[in-house]
Automatic annotation (TrEMBL):
This is DUF4295 domain-containing protein. InterPro entries: DUF4295. Pfam families: DUF4295. It comes from Pseudarcicella hirudinis.
Amino acid sequence: MAKKVVATLKKEGGVKYAKIIKAVKNPVTGAYTFKEEIVLQDEAVNALKG
């Protein structure tokens, strides 16, 4: 299951954010769905782990 930071959203002089798209497999049907999240750039690695 590939997880990747797709885009970095920037605000001048503000906090930096990252948009994360995760592929999540349904255990019953085996189909994949995608979850999108916007997190702080510093916390992006932790968001991908969990």
